[in-house]
Design brief:
With 324 residues, the protein is an alpha/beta fold. The protein is built from twelve helices and 13 strands. It has two domains: 205 residues, 3-Layer(aba) Sandwich (Rossmann fold); 83 residues, UDP-galactose 4-epimerase, domain 1 (Alpha-Beta Complex), CATH 3.90.25.10. Helix 7 links the parallel strand 5 and strand 6. The protein starts with a strand and ends with a helix. Bound molecules: NADP nicotinamide-adenine-dinucleotide phosphate and ligand F7E.
């Protein structure tokens, strides 16, 4: 009998890579999607389109507890990957109420549905380096105190604590991954890496003439999403549930990333980039640098893609897509 996995957020960057990874491992893969996605597959289902015939989709939302219970009851998963969330930090300042409500209640609903309908299942929760916020030590590891700086970070910290509480109170096999930024050609266009790589390609092809950005000094520990979904899976194959930092350990500034992307298309970034205060956040996370040594020692996991390979892959992919 193949193992069965249920993925929330299967239409997103990570969900699509994780579904592919689990299919390759012989899993039966199920995902929850919003009704609007099913109604508009050409837009919302593009990331999973290449393998959509090999997976099973169920209509549900993070706001609707009965819909999550029904998915859990029907699928009876061996593993649950809870990736769905309002994941854009900037948006969480503009609409903190929705972000807090969806992300915190959504995680609580998933845990409660798991406890009721699939208590033996193993669960992964998508925690984040944004929980470290105004960092109190560097690099950040599993024991580093959390000081979130955004409604998004606060919502994820609440989710992380809910996961820990369900693990301790009800014995669920529930793990949190504390994942640092991870990107890919499937990244949403509003996140800084994809915004930069897509604009570098557009400017190169004469389809845009400038790129407006916010804070270029922020340092992020960027890895490849394809590497990071493997770590999610490995966490659920361990003997005991635990939490893990997943990172490269090598931070770079937004400015470094912009330069690398524009160099790739042979352009001088300083001629095209304009600072627009609209993209500066009310509170910024200045620096993130993860220490992935626990993941290396216990999961045997390390990042395999360098920062340069990642940015080049994204630029090349955007150039190819825009040239077609
Ligand atoms: P993403 O591309 O933004 O995908 C988010 C997913 O959540 C989409 O499938 C989206 O569905 C779904 N979703 C959002 N609101 C929903 C709702 N109310 N009901 C049901 N589904 C909903 O995010 P990602 O980059 O793949 O990240 C996956 C998870 O990891 C997120 O929880 C994110 O916060 C977390 N994380 C990401 C990073 C990173 O660097 N990528 C790092 C740490 C943690 P639609 O397609 O219908 O919008
Ligand atoms: O910003 C700066 C911005 O939006 C990165 C999510 O996946 O990773 C992601 O959150 C940095 C920040 O990602 C622009 O101020 C400058 O310092 O790409 P981002 P994020 O906020 O780090 C974490 C780990 C998650 O968990 C989240 O879900 O880039 N920046 N100028 C800009 N950022 C954006 N988006 N747009 C700009 O114009």
């Amino acid at each position: 009998m193949p193992k069965t996995a249920l993925i929330t957020g299967i239409t997103g960057q990570d969900g699509s890579y994780l579904a592919e990874h689990l299919l390759a491992q012989g899993y039966e893969v199920h995902g929850i999607v919003r009704r609007v996605a099913l109604e508009d597959p050409s837009h919302r289902l593009v990331r999973i389109a290449p393998f959509i015939d090999r997976i099973h989709l169920h209509s549900a939302t993070l706001e609707n507890y009965p819909s999550l219970c029904e998915a859990m009851r029907v699928v009876k998963p061996d593993e649950v990957y809870h990736l769905a969330a309002q994941s854009f930090v900037a948006e969480s300042f503009d609409d903190s109420f929705s972000t807090l409500s969806t992300n915190i209640n959504g995680t609580h609903f998933i845990l409660s549905a798991l406890k009721a309908y699939a208590p033996e299942a193993r669960m992964y929760f998508a925690g984040t380096s944004e929980m470290f916020g105004k960092v109190v030590e560097s690099p950040q590891r599993e024991t580093t105190p959390f000081r979130p700086r955004s409604p998004y970070g606060i919502s994820k910290l609440a989710g992380y604590e809910l996961v820990r509480n369900y693990r301790e109170a009800y014995g669920l096999f529930a793990c949190s991954g504390i994942l640092f930024n991870h990107e890919s050609p499937r990244r949403g266009y509003e996140f800084v890496t994809r915004k930069v790589t897509s604009h570098a390609a557009k400017i190169k092809l004469g389809k845009a003439d400038r790129l407006e950005l916010g804070n270029l000094d922020a340092l992020r520990d960027w890895g490849h999403a394809k590497d990071y979904v493997v770590a999610m899976h490995l966490m659920l194959l361990q003997d005991q549930p635990d939490d893990y930092v997943i990172a490269t350990g090598k931070p770079h500034s937004v400015r470094d990333m912009v330069k690398l992307a524009f160099d790739r298309v042979g352009l001088d970034w300083e001629k095209y980039v304009v600072i627009n205060p609209r993209f500066v956040r009310p509170a910024e996370v200045d620096v993130l640098k993860g220490d992935p040594s626990k993941a290396k020692a216990q999961l045997g996991w390390t990042a395999t893609t360098t920062f340069e390979q990642l940015v080049h892959e994204m630029v090349d992919s955007d150039l190819a897509a825009l040239s077609r």
